[in-house]
Amino acid sequence: MPKVNDTFDADISALRAQIDDIDHQLLSLLAKRRKVTSQVGALKSEAGVAIFDPAREQALLASLKEKCHSYEVSPELIQDLFKRIMRDSYSSQDEKGYQKVNAKIEKVVVIGGNGQLGSIFVDLFSRSGYQVLSLEEQDWNNADNLLSGANLVIVAVPINVTEQVISKLNGLDKQCILADITSIKSTPMEKMLSVHKGPVVGLHPMFGPGVTGMIKQTVIVCEGRDLFACEWLMQQLQVWGAELKYYSAAEHDETMAMVQVMRHFSTISYGYHLMQEGADLQRLLDMSSPIYRLELAMVGRLFAQDKQLYADIIFSNGNNVAVMKRYAERFLTLLSAVECQDKALFLDTFTQVSDWFGDYAQSFLIESQQLLNKTKES
Amino acid sequence: MPKVNDTFDADISALRAQIDDIDHQLLSLLAKRRKVTSQVGALKSEAGVAIFDPAREQALLASLKEKCHSYEVSPELIQDLFKRIMRDSYSSQDEKGYQKVNAKIEKVVVIGGNGQLGSIFVDLFSRSGYQVLSLEEQDWNNADNLLSGANLVIVAVPINVTEQVISKLNGLDKQCILADITSIKSTPMEKMLSVHKGPVVGLHPMFGPGVTGMIKQTVIVCEGRDLFACEWLMQQLQVWGAELKYYSAAEHDETMAMVQVMRHFSTISYGYHLMQEGADLQRLLDMSSPIYRLELAMVGRLFAQDKQLYADIIFSNGNNVAVMKRYAERFLTLLSAVECQDKALFLDTFTQVSDWFGDYAQSFLIESQQLLNKTKES
Question: What is the model's pTM?
C-alpha cells in the first residue's frame, strides 16, 4: 500500500522536523545555562567559596522534581538530565581557577608531577595561584635547588620507587610539609616520618586514570606528624571539591587488601580463566544482559591498563596473600556444597551473608540498578 | 568584610534566578518534545514499524554533535543528555501499544504470567491486541480449558519447576507453539521436544528484575522444532524492540556456565568472605573509589535478591562445578606466583591475557569509564 506509506513518511518527517526544532532550542538553552554557571564559578572563586554546593544541588533537584507533574515530564528523566547538566556546570565553574587558601605558601614541589596523578595536583595548585614545580627522574642532580624553600613536597611517583624517592628527602626545611599520594600507606608513612622531622601527611586520592579533577572525589588522609600545620592543605583539597576521610595507615591498608587488592587479583584470575577456557568473547557479549556486560567490561578494562601498577599493588603487602588464600578456601568450601548437591547449606550461607549486608544490600541494588539503566543508552 | 559578602550573595542570587528561568524553559521544551515523540510512536504503531530505530538515533546524535561547536556546548554533555532523552522517548512511544504481527493468533497462554518476567510478556501481548491468559499454580484443575485452542504457550515459571510444568503440556494442539523463557536451555528444550510434537522454541530474555519492557533488550533464541512456524513470534519480539541472537541450547548453557553461573558464584563467595573477615562495610565504602564502590554494589545487590533463584541457577548444571573448580585452581596458581614473589611470572601472565583480550580491553575501558563518570552524579 504505497499510499499509506507516503502519508506515513510525510507525517513522520513533519514530526521529526518539530523534534529537530525543539532540539536546537534545547542546545541553545544549554549553552546559555553554561555561560551563567561559569559566571557563578568566577564569583565563587573570587570569594573562596567551594564550587561543589550539595545543599544548592539538592534544593535545585527537589524544586525541579516538584514541577515535573505540572509540566507532564517524568521526574526520573529530569533528575538524570539535571544531574548530568550539573556535572557539566561544575567543570565550567572549575575553568576559572580556584582560591589560594594559604597566601603564605611560596613554593610547592610535586615529585613525579608529570605523571598521571601528579599532573592533576600540579594543575590544581597552579590554577589556585601557587608557584608549583615538578621534580622528575632526570632532575635529581638539581634537586637541592628545586626543593630549597619548598613549603610542601608531594611524592607522586610509582609505588615501586616511592620508598627510594622518599629516602632522598632528608634535607627539607623543618617547616615543610612532606606528603605522598601512594595507594598503600603504612610503609611510605614510616619512611617519611623517619626521613623528615617536620609535618607529614599521607594522602590517597581514591580515583583512577580517567579522572581529571578533584570535584566529588574521596581523598583518604592519614595523619603522620603535626596535622595542624597541614590544615591549609586539607582546606585546599576541599576547595577543589574533594571529600576527606581520616583513617590510620593500618586501617587504610587493611581495607585496601580486602577491597582493592582482592578485586584486582580475582579479576585478573578471572580474565586468565576465560583465556584458558578458550572463551569466545563475542559470544559472551552476545549473551550478556546489561549486568554481565558490565561485569565483563570490569574485567576487560583492567587488561587495557598498566600491568606494573597492578603487580606493584598486589605484591606490595605480604598480608595480601594470606587474605586471598582465605578467600580461595571459602570459595572451595561453598563449592563443595554445590558438588554435594547440598542446596540447604548453600541457601543457609546465602541467608547469613544477606543478613550481614543488612540494609546495604537493598541500597546497593537500587544504586546499581540506576546505573544499569544507563548502560542501555550507549 | 560583610560588604563583599552582601554583594556576593546578591550577585549569586541574580545568577541563580537566571538559571532557574532557563531550567523552566528546559522543562517545558522537554514536555513538548515528549508530546511529539508520542505522536511518532502512535504513527509507527499504526504502520507496524519497529519503535527502536538505530539509524535515526545515530543520525540525530551525529547531527547534534556537529552543532555543539557553534553552540559552545560540550559534545559529551549533549551525547549523554540526548541518549537519556531518547530512552524516555522510546517509553513514550511504547505507551500507545504495539502492532499485532499475526492477525490469525487467537489465544496466547503464559504459564506463570503473574510472575516477574511472565507479567512483562502478558503486558506486551495484550498491548499488541492479542487475547492473552495467565495460567497460575492454582489454575491447573482448569488447565485443559485454559490451554484449549492456544496458538502459543509460554512457560515462565521458576527454573526449579520448569520441567515438571512442561511435562503436563502433552495435550496441546499440534499447530501450537511451545516456548519457555528459562535461563538454562538444554533440559527444558529436551523436555518440550519430547512432550509436544508441534513447533518448539527456547527463549532466554537476557534481562533481570528491574526491566519493564523489551526495548533494546537481548533475547537468545534456541531453535527447537519448526522455526518457520515461530517466525511471527520472532517478529513480534522485534516489534517490541528486542534484539534476537540465535544460538544452540548447548552453546547457550556453556556460555552461561562461564559468565552467569561463575559470576554469581564468585560474587556470593566474595560476600561470604567479607562477612567472615568481619569487614566494616561503612569503612569499605568510605575508602572506595567509584569503581570499588560499583564492584561492592554489584556484590551487595545480589544479596537483596531471590536466593532460591541463584541457588537454582548454580545447581542447575553439573558441569558448573567443574568450570568453577578450574577457576579456583587458576586463582591459586596465580596466587602462588605472588607468594613466591615471582613478579616476572605474574606480569607475563598478565600480558598473555591482555593480548588475548585484544581490542576488547580498550573498548571495555572506554565503555566502563563512561559509566563510572555517571556514578559521580548520584
Answer: 0.76
